Amino acid sequence: MKARTRRPVIALGLIALLFTGFEVATRLERGAIAAQSPIVASDSAIAHRVDRAQLMDDVRTLSSNQFDGRRTASPGGVKARAWIAAAFLSIGLQPAGTSGFTEPFAFTHHSIRGLVTSGRQYTTEYKDAANLLGTLRGSIADAPYIVVSAHYDHLGNDGVHVFPGADDNASGVATLLAAARWFAAHPPRHSFLFAAFDAEEEGLKGSQTFVASGLLPAARMAIDVNMDMVSRNPHNEIFAAGTYQTPWLKPVLQEVQRRSGVKILLGHDRPIHKAGGVEDWTDLSDQGAFHDAHVPFLYFGVEDHADYHQPTDTADKIDPRFFGDVADMIVETLVTLDQQIH
Fold first, then answer.
1. Which residue of 143, 272, 290, 330 has the lowest C-beta tally within 10 Å?
2. 4 or 275: which carries more pLDDT confidence?
3. Is the pLDDT of residue 150 over 50?
4. Does domain 36-340 have CATH number 1.20.140.10?
C-alpha cells in the first residue's frame, strides 16, 4: 500500500520539476536574447542598397484593398499573383519553370477550427494556388543557388473586414523585389531564385510543394533566406533565426551588423528543451520546408505585434526608416552570402 500512495507524489514531483526546468530555460533564453547588444552602424557606414520610396510603394500596393487580403486562390490572391509576375518581368528575372513565372499547385486543407466553429469548413479544396518563381543567373555556372523567399498570401476577408497584411507579408515580398532589383543591376556570383510562395497561411503549402517538386533539387540550394514580417518593431530590432542550426551564419551576420542601421538579434531557433517558452520559429514560416529538406536557412522577422492577423495590419503603421534599414540589411546579408559561400 505504501508504494501505491507514493506514486502520485512522485508523479507530481516530476511534473513540478519539469515545470521548473521549463521556466528556468525560458528565463535563460530571454536573458540571453536581452543580453545581446548589437551596435548599429552610423549613417555614413550603413550599406544603402534599396530604393526606399519604391519599397514603400510596393508594400502599400500589395496591401491595398484592390487585392482584398490576398487569400489563396481568391480573386484578390490571383490578382496579387499577376502583379508580382509583372514585377518579376520588369526587373528582368527569368522564369524558373516551363510555364512562365507562375507554378500552379493544388492541395486540400483541413481546419481544426472548422470542427468547432459554426460556418467554417473542416475541409477546403484549393485548386488554383500558385507560387511565383524567378531566377537570375550568376557568373559561376556550377555554384549552388541562393534562394530568397517570402509568402504573398494572407487571410483575405471575413465578409466584414479586409485583412490587408501589410507587415504579414507584403513587407517580405517588397523586400524580395528590392533584392531582385539590386542583383539585376549588380550581377551576382551565385545564381539566385526569387520565390514568392502561396498558401503559407494554410500550412506552408507553397514552399512544401516547391521543395518536393524537384524543380530545384535540395542539393543545388546553398541556403534559403526567408522573410516574413520585416517592417515593424518599436525597438529597432529584427530577429535572425537559423544560426543555431547553421553556426557559420553567425559571423556572417556579425559582419553585416557593422553596416546595418537596425539591431540584428539572434534567436527563436532553438528547441523547446533548450529555449523553454521562447517560441521556436524554425517550422513556423516557409523556411521550415527547406529545413526539413536539410537546406540551411536564415529567417528574418519581427515578433508578433498587436496588429498581427488583424484588419489593422496596414501600411500606414510601418515606419519607413526602420523598414528601409531592415531591407538594406537583408540585401547586404545576401551580398555577403554571395561573396562568402563556396
1. 272
2. 275
3. yes
4. no
Q: Which of 35, 64, 139, 138 is nearest to 315 (CA)?
A: 64
152-163: burial string, b at 16+ Cβ within 10 Å, e else = bbbbbbeeeebb
130, 137 contact by CB (below 8 A): no
pLDDT digits (tens, 9 = 90+) for 86-124: 999 999 999 998 789 999 999 999 876 656 555 557 789
Rounded Cα distance between 60 and 166, Å, is 7
Distance CA 298, CA 5 (A): 51
Q: pLDDT tens digits for 242-265?
A: 999 999 999 999 999 999 999 999
Report the C-alpha gap between 281 and 24 in whole angstroms: 20
How many Cα atoms within 13 Å fall on the side-chain side of residue 326? 33
* Whole-number Å distance between alpha carbons of 62 and 86: 13
Cell of 61: 500596393
pLDDT at 5: 54
What does pTM read for this prediction? Answer: 0.93
From 263, 325, 334, 336, select the one nearest 50 (Cα to Cα): 325
Query: pLDDT value at position 2?
Result: 44
Q: Looking at residue 246, what is its pLDDT?
A: 98
In one-letter notation, the amino acid at residue 21 is G
3-class secondary-structure state, position 265 = strand
E-strand ranges in 155-257 read 192-197, 221-227, 237-241
Give 298's Cβ-side CA count (13 Å radius).
26
Q: Which three cell numbers stand for residue 20?
A: 521548473
Tell me the mean pLDDT in the region 45-68.
97
- Spatial distance between the Cα atoms of 88 and 85, rounded to a whole number of angstroms: 5
In the chain, where the domains are located? 36-340
Neighbours of 277 (CB within 10 A): 12
| Residue in the structure block whose three cell numbers are 530568397 | 148
Decide: helix, strand or coil at residue 47. coil
